[in-house]
Amino acid sequence: HGPRIIKIVGFLIVPVGILLFLSQRAIEGTTTSDAIVNTVAGVIGMIPEGLVLLTSVSFILGVGRLARKQALVQEMEAIEALARVNVLCLDKTGTITTGDLEVVEVVPCGTMSDEKIREVMNEITFAFNDVNPTQQALMNYFEKTQKWQTTDLIPFSSARKYRAIAFGEHGAYMLGAPEFIMKNDEELLKKSETYALQGYRVLLLAETNQISSADGTVGTPKPAALIVISDCVREEAPSTFAYFEAQHVAIKVISGDNPATVSQIAQKAGLKDGDKYIDASTLPESFDELKNVVKNYTVFGRVTPEQKQRLIKAYQANKSVVGMVGDGVNDVLALKDADCGIAMARKYRNAAGSDAAKQVAHIVLLDSDFVHLKEIVSEGRMIISNIERVSSLYLTKTIYSLLLNVIFILLGRSYPFVPIHLTLISTVAIGIPSFILALEQTETVTQSGFLKHVLRVALPGALTMVLNMLLIQGISIALGFDSGMTATYNLIVAGMVSLMVLMRVCNPMNKIRSILCNTMIAIFVACVILFPELFSINSVFSWRMIFIAPLVIF
């Protein structure tokens, strides 16, 4: 927003400056030199000098702090989105859980013997090249024999939720989600659901008469065994979820696993409303219906990559700022469309998937530690909070300077400030405070958007300044103040209004902000009293000035 504001002001400076000079030059008794000085004061006031510098410094320091927390920021704009995220979508594996899976039981559910089941799994487990947490758990449990020759295979996909392989005379097999392989076997699915409700992940090994990688078709499956896999909840997950709940960030778990399994693990991790789950295959096709349905659930299971993308868009359509945490090729679409995409650089993912996710993500967690996410969100909020406060100070001056320029062009009166006045006001009410506030660390940030929040502070302050300046012009005419007396009142009132804006920006007060405000007020008063000639102040304070000052200021 800083460069955009500078661009707008840049277009306005030339025409406003020319008109202001012509109007000042036309005032009776004003020399060309005086007109130039007044014009310079008006033009300089419009420029939010230091805004881009301090916002850049805030971003650079923030990015440095994020880097120390193993977060690589790839797009600066993502920091603001990260600070305003109120819906955070993430997978279960590696975030809520450690990602270290373990096979705990192999349960026969057909006519195949235990020895045959193990022999088949020994071959299937090491026949595919893709490595993920589930595959790694199988590789740790079964043995690499490679006695059979692979004649055909269908790799795993998020759409079909299973893989298939043929070993010639040794038969063809399927391995994947029971509800996708045996959709109509209620007894088997009920048995699988029993494990899922305990928080286990369940795979089904099934025999089939044939498979075809050419068209992705498989024959009729016959169940052989259920492979039960456990996943450990991260110790830090409850505290992480508690942090996000306190920050009013809703966590949504989007997983390809069984929704009941994911829900149980989410509840163990302390996720609020973790019991509200749905199978993504039952989600409505209509986007308008989907927008309403997503409000009712926290856990989404059996989600395809395309559905992840639609869920992100549904939350965005509900006016939420959405963050997405992903780590593989299946998350690329969702990461790209999220307001802030966060990639986990996991080593166990295939290189293509991980690289694709990192390419489209706005931020990359280099150590893939979900716990650091709350620190990263906190840091993002600190950066944007600091920039918001600093911008409010600079834009207040820009707005009232622009308005005063236009008004005094129309009135045909001398511009109320000279450059030395603005130097004092800018130093004590903007320059020094903005530097300190830009380096402060606080998480307070609004969800309303950067410019809207900044204008909520800057606009009232600017209008207050303009009204006070107009009031002083009226009083000076009524009481016959000379130009020196009027300029003195302009400076004192403008300084006090600017300091009031500073105090509003510093709310809620803490020790540092309180010291800052009191120090700036003391410096301003000291400059007015001790250095009147330096700041072109009339040192003769008549009874009229003493009487009118409180009325003008308050």
Secondary structure topology:
Blueprint (H helix, E strand, L loop, with lengths): L1 H24 L6 H15 L4 H18 L2 E3 L3 H8 L2 E4 L1 H5 E12 L5 H12 L7 H9 L10 E3 L7 E5 L5 E5 L1 H4 L4 H11 L4 E8 L2 E2 L4 E2 L3 E12 L3 H10 L3 E5 L4 H10 L8 E3 L7 H7 L5 E3 L3 H13 L4 E5 L5 H6 L2 E5 L6 H10 L2 E3 L6 H40 L7 H21 L10 H30 L3 H24 L4 H20 L12 H11 L1
Helix pairs in contact: 1-2, 1-16, 2-16, 3-16, 3-17, 4-16, 12-13, 16-17, 16-18, 16-19, 17-19, 17-20, 18-19, 19-20, 19-21
What structural category arises from helix and sheet content? alpha/beta
Note the gap between the termini. 33 Å
Number of strands: 16
Rg over CA atoms, rounded to whole Å, is 33 Å
Shape: elongated
Main sheet specs: 8 strands, mixed
- Spatial strand arrangement across the major sheet: 1-16-15-14-2-11-13-12
- Low-pLDDT residue spans: 348-353, 541-554
How much β-strand is present in the residues?
5-15%
User: What's the total helix number?
Assistant: 21
Mean pLDDT score = 84
Classify the helix fraction into a percent range. 55-70%
In words, what does this structure look like?
The protein is of the alpha/beta class and 554 residues long. It has 21 helices and 16 strands. It has an eight-stranded mixed beta sheet, with helices on both faces. Strands 3-10-7-6-5-4 form a six-stranded antiparallel beta sheet, with helices on both faces. A two-stranded antiparallel sheet has the order 8-9. Helix 3 packs antiparallel against helix 16.
